[in-house]
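Pipeline run #58 for the internal structure catalog. This entry was flagged by the ingest filter as a single-chain record with no existing model, so it goes straight to prediction. Upstream metadata was stripped on purpose; only the residue string is passed forward. Reviewer on rotation: M.T. Logging verbosity set to normal.
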Amino acid sequence: MIRKVNLKTENRVPSTYVCTRGYILPTLRDAVKRKTTPKIILLRSILFIRARVITPVRDSTSQLRLMSLDYRLIHAATIVSIGALLLTGSRERGLSLLQFHIDFGLLSVAVLGVYSLIMLLKHRVWLFDALREPVSSQIREGLAIARKYSLGTPYPPEVQSRMGRHNILATYASLVLVLSFIPLMGGGIAMVFLQRGTTVFELARFLHLMGVGLIGLFFLVHVLAVFHPENWPLLKAMFSSGRVPIEWAREHLAGWHLMDEGRESGGKKEEI
């Protein structure tokens, strides 16, 4: 998309520009209008760039890519998988569905594990970055988020400036989710090989159900958070383009957005 922008810098460079891929460049028509040779216009443009005046253009419609396509697909597949596993996990529904539960559960864990490993190797995991902050800072951020969601109180500037890609409450909830896979997988795999009715089998069953309960707790908190009006842009992004408004990111992801400001391209920042 090409549009004209007036930077009101007539004394330094021509005042009419074309915005192409987010960058502002002088037009040939402006050079003709001012009877300026293309050579001079090029020289002025180079000086303009060296002075670092040319910057990516943003307006109220500018958006930031927050979620990659693979992330959104895995998220949707995880929701479907958990629903299928919950519906097929009871022996009363038949042995065929129970066998499907076992096989599909192992497949789901393997796929999720491989994807998580790839994300770690590509340095695309920011979920636990908030834990690097001092405990006092984590508590202040958690209280600020709770006041924001419940009372609409703005974030204190010192808290807002440190908020990363995932806030501290999202990090805590995700930590519960990760830990829930330990009893879930351990108990579930043990049940496959243990004899029903034994004490050890019942212990494995308890661990498996405890993992299911922790996952249920995570999803309850997760759903309540994403359906809060403050996070509607995030919910919309998850099931559409993966983009959120720049202004929303500046308010809710200020620390991460500012830290990664240099990764922009045409007013949009790609997740890597």
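catalog note: Residues 199-226 form the longest helix (28 residues).
catalog note: Residues 3-50 form one domain.
status: ready for reviewer M.T.
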